[in-house]
Amino acid sequence: MSDATNNEAEAQGAAPAPAGNENIINLDLKDGRVVIELRTDLAPKHCERIKALASQGFYDNTPFHRVIEGFMAQGGDPTGTGTGGSPMPDLAAEFTPPARARFLRGTCGMARTGNPNSANSQFFIMFGPYPSLDGQYTIWGRVTSGMEHVDKIKRGAGGSGTVQNPDRIVRMRPAGVA
Hints:
alpha+beta
C-alpha cells in the first residue's frame, strides 16, 4: 500500500483488515486489478449487496457511465444510463458520521437518487476528497491497491460527467471466487 493510501486509511479510521479474504473485492479494469477492502464495520448490508452482486457476475462488462475529473468514477448500472440497477430491492441508508469515515481518495460509496434509501447496485470510487458527501452517502469500501488503474478510467464531459464510449468493468468478484 502506498504512503498516500496508508495516510488515507488512517484518516478513515479503518478497522484492522479481517483475516482471510472474505471482505476483499477484486475489481479488474482494462489497466489492471483494483483491490477493495469492504468496510463491513460501516455498512454491513451494502457490503453484503456488493459481494452478492459481484459473486453473480452482475458487474462484469458494466460501464463507468459517469466520471468526473477530481471527483469520482461511477459504475454498476447495467443500462449505462445512470437509472438502472439490479433486480434486488433498494437498500436503506447506512450513513457514517464524518468522525468515523470520510469521502477521501479511494473511498467507495453507493450511488443513490435524492431518496437516501435508494441505493441498489451503482457505486462510485473517489479520485479525491469531497467533504460534502460525508455523512450523506454510504461508504462501503476503500481501495487498498490499484488506485493507479482507477485514475486511468476514461473521463466524461461537462458537469454531469457523462462518458461516451465508456471504460467498463472487466470482472468484479469477491477474492477467492473463481
